[in-house]
């Protein structure tokens, strides 16, 4: 069966689509077949990213390794069971269509709580939660005291992941491997940054996730999106000499793929 990777949280602006595209493309470059779904049915940032890549490849005559993007199929009222949610049927049908021919299925969730996102989390073998390095985003995971030191209790997103874990346990499925990415990090060392690190390490032990490094804040990510490109495509488009920032960003991606510890995957780029 395909290994399902879900990228999600319930807050926008954390870089979910950028993370999703880089993981999916890295896996495709390593020879894996990757199917991808975008559950943000209104914005579709991840879907547009893949479409931009397809259009750029066609225009430039390049054959860039790419994930296989699928739209959710429409619900079939005739196939709905009594009380079944149409969104559940749509997601199940999409997964069933992708599983036979793909090694990995990447699901990018919207930055809000939806039925689709809730169900997708319960399907995750690996859950990746990008988090901006601030206590504003930390509040997504847990409530803390005014000093940022004492954890007062889980927040709504953590409770949703807990419920997803319970559903998987009841179904006899293996536990979710939950990774929280410290994403869009600033280069400077700040007291707040150190507090965030300690708070995340403390919370990780309590609610069961692993902390991994994400991407630093870099202009190049915004420049790559319109062409559907990733850090791994720069040499393909004629960038033969990478600057220090680009080299560092590629290392961040390599470290991220390694930290995910996906089955059969060893970064070779």
Automatic annotation (TrEMBL):
| TM segment ranges | none
Pfam families, A to Z: MipZ
Q: Where is this region: Disordered?
A: 60-86
InterPro entries, per database record: DNA_Partitioning_ATPase, MipZ, P-loop_NTPase
Task: Provide the protein name.
Answer: AAA family ATPase
């Amino acid at each position: 069966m395909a290994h399902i990777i879900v990228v999600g949280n319930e807050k926008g602006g954390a870089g979910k689509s950028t993370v999703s595209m880089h993981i999916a493309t890295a896996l495709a470059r390593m020879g894996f077949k990757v199917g991808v779904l975008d559950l943000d049915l209104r914005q579709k940032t991840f879907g547009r990213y893949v479409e931009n890549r397809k259009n750029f490849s066609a225009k430039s005559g390049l054959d860039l390794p790419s994930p296989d993007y699928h739209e959710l199929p429409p619900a079939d009222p005739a196939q709905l069971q009594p009380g079944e949610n149409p969104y559940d049927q749509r997601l199940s049908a999409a997964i069933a269509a992708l599983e036979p021919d793909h090694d990995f299925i990447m699901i990018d969730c919207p930055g809000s709580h939806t039925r689709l996102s809730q169900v997708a989390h319960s399907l995750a073998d690996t859950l990746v939660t990008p988090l901006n390095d601030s206590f504003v985003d930390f509040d997504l995971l847990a409530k803390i005291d005014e000093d940022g030191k004492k954890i007062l209790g889980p927040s709504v997103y953590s409770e949703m992941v807990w419920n997803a874990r319970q559903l998987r346990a009841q179904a006899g499925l293996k536990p979710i491997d939950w990774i929280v990415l410290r994403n869009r990090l600033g280069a400077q060392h700040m007291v707040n940054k150190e507090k965030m690190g300690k708070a995340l390490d403390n919370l990780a032990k309590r609610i069961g996730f692993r902390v991994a490094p994400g991407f630093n804040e870099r202009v190049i990510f915004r420049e790559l999106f319109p062409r559907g490109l990733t850090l791994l495509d720069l040499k393909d488009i004629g960038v033969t000499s990478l600057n220090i920032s680009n080299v560092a960003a590629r290392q961040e991606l390599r470290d991220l793929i390694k930290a995910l510890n996906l089955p059969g995957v060893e970064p070779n780029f």
